[in-house]
């Protein structure tokens, strides 16, 4: 038996730590959809690094490319100087992702995390329009730095800023009123009326699926109406695809199904393909109005991430075979989640693609299910303003057998902490 001591974490690491409180284990190894603790216990990982590990842990082909790059003494840190690794990434991203989708956006490397991408998007939107306000949506989450927090809904996270959060307005997300979703008439009229007291914003920022906000997924027609509203008023449309992008909802960008073209797109998490820090802010060419060095960051040139990102794009997105595989696993996941939800009072399925979960009317239930799943060897997190949703995010590379195993473990966890509608529904 190996050492499993956690004293140093408890005595030296900040109280801000969170996931380790939900999963009190010391992890040591990881491969694909699995992690192992230092004492050898295996866990099925349906958390996927909060969406940063869409291709699983230590994918062998990506790992090989990374090792070859490092052992070849190639450039690791480069700020924004030209490197072979960056050139290869930009060319591959253009050829496999942007051009086939009819997107002519330029690529900005704003820094290594999702909130860096969002901050850059907000700043350039304000610079280009000369306006200050940003419209976001109820239960949105866009990051933990001040600009991103200003367009985030969660009151606990906003309070952590310790200062007023300025220049943001909030609108109801799709289905915020439980089936009585208003159209955009209110925004349309107030933006048109100089006496409304609501200034015309620089941009609207939206998640097509609210990953942290409870897995609510916007309808395609709602997103199209939002794009039309923005176009009529000269307001920029920002899609935050940090968590829902890179194939998580079934297509590379989560907005493809709706047929919209955002002015600005935020990417991070799985864009590196390997869990390495990397973020992009994609801008329509006419919005690329930065002065050289006006927005920068020391770690915007992380070449190992460029290497694994390029390899991931070539391996998974050169044709539609991987997308078809993801669609099959998504159908399997939603069928399994619906079976569980149908078996329990006050439960329903939310989400799209492999970003899905079960919401519970009793807001305490999801946390108990998460704990019961951990006891059984399954890693899932909770989501939503009250943590009322069990969030299931397996790697996109999950096999049919692994997904079946995870759904069975989740079924057992739900049965352990809730009362089923009928016992027979738990069988099979």
From TrEMBL:
Gene Ontology MF terms: diaminobutyrate-2-oxoglutarate transaminase activity; diaminobutyrate-pyruvate transaminase activity; pyridoxal phosphate binding
Annotated Pfam families: Aminotran_3
Keyword Magnesium: no
Any GO BP: ectoine biosynthetic process
Pathway linked to the protein: Amine and polyamine biosynthesis; ectoine biosynthesis; L-ectoine from L-aspartate 4-semialdehyde: step 1/3
InterPro entries: Aminotrans_3 (IPR005814), Aminotrans_3_PPA_site (IPR049704), Dat (IPR004637), Ectoine_EctB (IPR012773), PyrdxlP-dep_Trfase (IPR015424), PyrdxlP-dep_Trfase_major (IPR015421), PyrdxlP-dep_Trfase_small (IPR015422)
EC top class named in words: transferase
Annotated CDD domains: OAT_like (cd00610)
Swiss-Prot/TrEMBL keywords: Aminotransferase, Pyridoxal phosphate, Transferase
Cofactors, names only: pyridoxal 5'-phosphate
The enzyme's E.C. designation: 2.6.1.76
UniProt record similarity statement: Belongs to the class-III pyridoxal-phosphate-dependent aminotransferase family.
NCBIfam families, A to Z: dat (TIGR00709), ectoine_ectB (TIGR02407), PRK09264.1 (NF006733)
Protein name according to UniProt: Diaminobutyrate--2-oxoglutarate transaminase
């Amino acid at each position: 038996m190996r050492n499993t001591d956690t004293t140093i974490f408890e005595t030296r690491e900040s109280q801000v730590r969170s996931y380790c409180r939900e999963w009190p284990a010391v992890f040591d190894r990881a491969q694909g959809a699995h992690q192992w603790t230092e004492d050898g216990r295996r866990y099925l990982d349906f958390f996927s690094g909060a969406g940063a590990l869409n291709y699983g842990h230590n994918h062998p082909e990506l790992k090989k490319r990374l090792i070859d790059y490092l052992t070849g003494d190639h450039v690791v840190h480069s700020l924004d100087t030209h490197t072979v690794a960056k050139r290869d990434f930009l060319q591959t991203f253009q050829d496999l992702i942007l051009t086939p989708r009819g997107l002519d956006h330029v690529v900005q490397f704003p820094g290594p995390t999702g909130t860096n991408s969002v901050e850059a998007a907000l700043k350039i939107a304000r610079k280009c329009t000369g306006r200050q306000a940003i419209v976001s949506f109820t239960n949105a989450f866009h990051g933990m730095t001040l600009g991103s927090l200003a367009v985030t809904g969660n009151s606990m996270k906003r309070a952590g800023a310790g200062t007023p959060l300025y220049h943001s307005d909030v609108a109801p997300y799709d289905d915020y009123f439980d089936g009585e979703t208003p159209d955009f008439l209110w925004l349309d009229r107030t933006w048109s009326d100089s006496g409304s007291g609501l200034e015309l914003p620089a941009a609207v920022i939206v998640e097509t699926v609210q990953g942290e906000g409870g897995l609510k997924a916007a309808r395609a027609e709602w997103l199209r109406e939002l794009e039309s509203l923005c176009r009529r008023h000269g307001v920029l449309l920002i899609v935050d695809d940090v968590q829902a992008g890179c194939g998580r909802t079934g297509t590379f960008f989560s907005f493809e199904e709706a047929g919209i073209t955002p002015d600005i797109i935020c990417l991070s998490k799985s864009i590196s393909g390997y869990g390495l820090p990397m973020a992009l802010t994609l801008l329509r060419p006419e919005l690329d109005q930065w002065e050289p060095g006006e927005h920068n960051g020391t770690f915007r040139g992380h070449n190992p991430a460029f290497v694994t990102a390029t390899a991931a794009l070539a391996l998974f997105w050169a044709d539609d075979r991987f997308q078809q595989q993801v669609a099959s696993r998504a159908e399997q996941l939603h069928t399994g989640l619906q079976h569980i939800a149908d078996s329990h009072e006050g439960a329903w399925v939310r989400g799209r693609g492999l970003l899905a979960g079960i919401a519970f009317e009793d807001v305490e239930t999801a946390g108990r299910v998460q704990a019961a799943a951990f006891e059984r060897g399954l890693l899932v997190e909770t989501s939503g303003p009250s943590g009322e949703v069990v969030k299931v995010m397996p790697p996109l590379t999950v096999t049919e057998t692994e997904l079946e195993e995870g759904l069975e473990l989740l079924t057992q966890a739900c049965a352990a902490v809730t009362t089923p509608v009928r016992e027979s529904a738990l069988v099979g």
